[in-house]
Amino acid sequence: MNGADDWSWFDAPVTSDVDLSSHSVTAVLVCRNAGSWLNATLAGIARLDRRPDMIIAVDNNSDDDTRSLLLDAEERGMIDVVVNGQSYWSFGEGVRAGLAHAPERTDWIWLLHDDAVPDPAALTELLFLGANNPTMAIGVPLLVRPSRRNHVSHTLEIGATISGSGRRDLGLELDEVAQGQYDSHAVLGGSTAGMLVKWASFEAIGTFDKAIGSYRDGVDLGWRVQLIDEWVMTAPKARLVHRQVGRSEIRTGTIAKQHNRSEAAWDRLMGLRLVCAHSHGLGRILTWFRLVFATLVRALGFLLGKAPDRAGDEIVALGDFIFASRRLISGLRKKNNRIAKGKDSRTRVRALRPSIGSTLEAAGQSVAHWLQDLFGSGDDSDMTLDDLLGDEYSRRIGEGRKKVPVGVWMGLVLAAVALMARGLFRSGQITAPGLLGAPATWQDALSLALAGSSQGYGLPSPWLLICAVASVLAVHPTWLVLIAILVLFPAAMLMAAWFAKYRILNTRLRWLAAAGYASLPIVMGGLNHGAIWLMVVAVLLPFLAEWVQRIDMPWSGARSIQTMAGIAFAGVFLLPILPAMWIVIIVVCILVAALRGTVGAVFRAFIAAGLPVAVWALWIPSLARNPVRLLMTPEASLTPASTGWQMIVGRPGAAESLPPLWVSIVVFAVVWLAAIISASFNPEHRKLFLSGMAVVAASMWLSHLHFTLSSFRVVADPSPWLLIGFAILLLSGVRWMDDTMGDLSDSDFGFRQALLGLMSFLMAACFLIGGVWSVWAGASQVTRGEGAQLPQYLSQTEIDRGAATLIIDAADGTWNVRANGSTIWGQGDHPEGALLSTQARSRTELFVASALAGLSDQTGAEHLATLGVSSVVVTNPTPGTVTALDTVPGIQRPTSSPTLQIWNVLGNPDPPTRMTLVSGNVFLMYLTPTQEIPEGVSRTLLLATVPDDTLRVFVGGVEVEPVPGPDWRAAYDVGTASGVVTTTRDVSHSWMVWGQLGVFVLLFIFIFPPLGDGTGASSRPRRGVKGVEE
Amino acid sequence: MKSRLNLFLTILTGLVLIAAMAGSVLVPMPPSSREQITLGGTRSVVCAVGPSGGGSTVGTSTVHLTDAKDLTAHQVGGAGHDPDSLVTFEAAEKPVVADGTPMLGGVTIYSDSGKTAMVPCVSPASYGIWNGVPINQSATLVLTNVDPAPAVVDVFLLGQSGPIPVPGLRDINISAGSTGTLLLDPLTSSPTPITVVMRVSKGRIAGTIRMAGDAGIEWMAPQPAAESILVITGIPAVEGSRVLTVTNAGDEKATFTLKALTESGDFLPLGDTPIDVSALDVLEMDVTQAIGTQATTLVLTSTAPISASITVKGSDIAIISAQGPLGAGLTFPGVESATLWLSNPTDKRVIVTVASDDGQGNQESTQLVLPPESTASTPYPETGRVVLTAESEAAVHAALVVTGTSVSVIPLTSGSLASVMQVPDLDPGLG
Fold this sequence. Notes:
The complex is a heterodimer of chains A (1030) and B (431). Chain A is an alpha+beta fold. Chain A contains 36 helices and 30 strands.
């Protein structure tokens, strides 16, 4: 037995005991403008192992050489009759005309499309199925996509059904490969390409109906066959290669085009008509509304998916359905009712149609496929022919060999996040050294963000507005957005770094780089410091880098907007965070576009750069007034002093937020090392290396700069620049490793392999160390509730009594006036309340300076009372300060400890609050938030804040008017009003928030690539076995 | 060729960037220009006076006050003195209250039967500690309330066996503008000196302890607060015993070391072995042998806040408690037979200027340079007004030591650690 004999079973013809010779077949080939592909179809027909008894070709008045090809084929005996048709004929009308020329009625009709090439055994297999299944009225073959020799064939269709919304349901996976896995089963219908129909059944059901002229006509036939209690079966072994020239709009002069419709719109219309025509009774109305609603939803979905053309198709189809289909649908419905045999057939049809949940499932799968397109590797180049033929083959595209399940990795990440954020599993305000408390409600947050405009600080602090809007999404409480960022940060970082897939080919190396990049901002102490904005920068950077790289891509349509939208989207965040960074990014983007792209690319770069500026346009005047803000990050006053040389190893800030020095050295030294090696061995990476180095050097010099911003002494925060610098260095090193892996894959082991192996190990080990520290202590300074610097009762007093606390740090010589239980967002950028008054602030500074100097301020208590300060707290007290405050009349020290001394400001009889009621120059009382003003006359309410036009004060629900006060405090004439005091704030420019939000949403939509073309094929490059299709 | 040029340029650029990084580290950060704030304000002091009329001891109290500018002073319940920069109340019978600048200083000189006790005028406060108070010396706690509102005081006694429970020492009311006294001897039979703690829950009190016993007469100003680093300046060079009393009024154990500064150098009187003081405990140690009879300054460094004093008992008794630094400056009256002792316990060099004006146009000025961890002395003018200023404002500790028939040590503390300060920064992250 020789080798050829081993495979002889594979090539042996299928034999059976059924006599197919008794089954007569008339094949009808309907053609229209098929000159480019008809020869292949004719050749396929000529190769059939079972020639139909009659082959009739119908030419629907083609404009090209289709008719001459058919006549030539008739001459050569490949077909028997050529019938002339009309250009406006549908496929069904062509079949009818063809059958009219058949000399006799045969058992079967084989319907052929001019772009479907049958396998030699196609008809035989169909007949075999029909012969073995007497109740089968229609046999549906397997339709596959054209492919190259020795490449896998992708299934186009093997039967079809239709959902309640008119969606075509093929029951296939994306890019499903036809490799003999199908069994014959019942379906609702299928494509008419290669469909075998029992002639008698064909006539019984009324042949084709003019309501469904194309696309869904096969499903319509099958549906009506079900109604007469006959079956539609799939014949997987009967294979045709179908080009789908109609659906892919290659064919000219189609029915759809004659109606000025796209093929997709025409297909959709057919689907709508089909479902509607098969509804009956009261269900007709419900079905009609359901179809309309579903179409509108689909249109919206396509619009959001940046496929406006497909959305348009939906609307056009809907229009035709509503306004141009009634009579046709009615005719088909009557036909259906006439032939329907009863409830059983309808029940069977129901079983052959997808359930109502299938639409949602299909939508979910579309999203999943789309995400897979975005993030998947789609690589099946490992696949061999043996894999395809082996029994164990069950893999789909994108699956590699054995690897750790994704679920395990996700579980590990979740566990790491839970461990990192373990300090947050309690109640209370979330704070960190650089993170102030969140306002109580999202309304307060918005009011705070928008109220800044009235205080002379220019238009809303943009970062504050971003935080406030994010708080709206969380609804309540406002700090939930912080939890979300902390919890989602690792996943977001990995997703962001995954965008490097086009720059780093090796998958393992890509994950290593992603993990390393994700740990950088944490090991730099950013998370510990509570620099949420740094986390946002870190997430956006990889996306931004990729989009800038793609600015010169010659895409068109929605795709061309994607990069522009992406850059602008990132800019909406980055501009408020660090305007100087955005300026640098703009310059880089325009340079890249100018050097690599066309004028169009430069134009897109300008648009992308300018959009965020337009979004935050109302902030620009404020920025112009305070140009220092260009270099400042949010809450600039909380930026710690720099650490000098330690920035070389990624340590920009305060020691308590940073890891042990050795951890920083380990993590960042390996980044430096990889980058240096990269620059040494690969000249192409030297620019990258020098760029990263330059950014690090610049950030070190930047930390030398001191400024005054909103009366705060501030320093420029080098951490975002350091992050960029080290990210560039990391990329440089990883790119070298990736390139080297590719170059050395076929080389013998040598120095470079050894170096590569060593670097891989070092990088993995060092990033693991960094990762372990990140998980264990990366967020340890982010506290919640307990652990606050001061006793909780002080916060409670501030909230309950509406008082304030003066806090002095005698070690640093700093101070703060805190109200409402905690310092909140925005107060790191500009002072609030009483501290807006120059007079009040100066007087407080004098009191604090006197205390620090050991000097007793004899009138200090009176001033503190005007601020509403009821407690003075000194941390790290010095003896001189304690002595000085002990001798201040009007304050009393009830408690003391080495690290904390607290004095109470005495009142008369109650301690001071931020609301004082006076009558002329006579003090009446201090008011708590819930306390009512008693009835009386001629009273004035003094608030411990500066006069503010946007502040509205109500006493017992009655608004009181502002009047000149005795000092810097806002004063209101209470008159005879009585009741609880409430305040509201008129916010300005609230309309602007909606506009900004709208632009933001649009940008967010456009950063995702458009949806696929609806053919079911993946948008990723198709890869065959050991090869790639283009 | 091109690749070599590329490599050269890369190396050159790299070197430039390395230099830039090194420069950012080596080049010092420019000092930030910060606004200065001039500390004005006032200082109030209360000068205790001795008993006059009745009682077992009758002496004469003379109060001397001086300031950089004209000060105002009056006896409690009495008429005021004309504003002047140098004020004297002869034979004062009531405590004297004075208001002036932070440089205001004053002293009460009490003479009785040839013995003299001196005590500086002190600011009313809400807290005070007196260490090493002997019980059998007719010790009296004098509490003066000069404010227009009543004050409420709690007094605590601590002995070597811990707190001494004594009823009636809580919520002691001192009416506005009045003085209350508390005789300590009957309150306890402790054989060893005790520590008296005054805590004012309402108002402010100027407190003094005065003693008149067979050991001599002594008046003690309070130590303002427990501290972790204490400096006892002005231990005189007289014959007699020296007993160190250390009080830990806190609730955790304190461990301290002792260092002595003399004009000839510094040394560790008790070696480098740390000494423990339990919580709420008083420790008494005879350090006569350890420090000798030379003029000494003692520096105690503790792990927890403590208070301390040295009792020198020879022909007279002198109890010198730890006090705060001299601060920005002080004006003080001339004192007869006094020597000014200055101590610098820090690791920085300090220059102190002593300028005197005898009121008759004679002015003198001396500069003393104090090396790190050193002590020095200089004769002190007997009359007129002396202005003491220190270059390093918070470092120097000063005391006047009067020896002769009586021994008195007058600690000199300013009402302010500085006259001009940088504006303190507002830190929103605080709290």
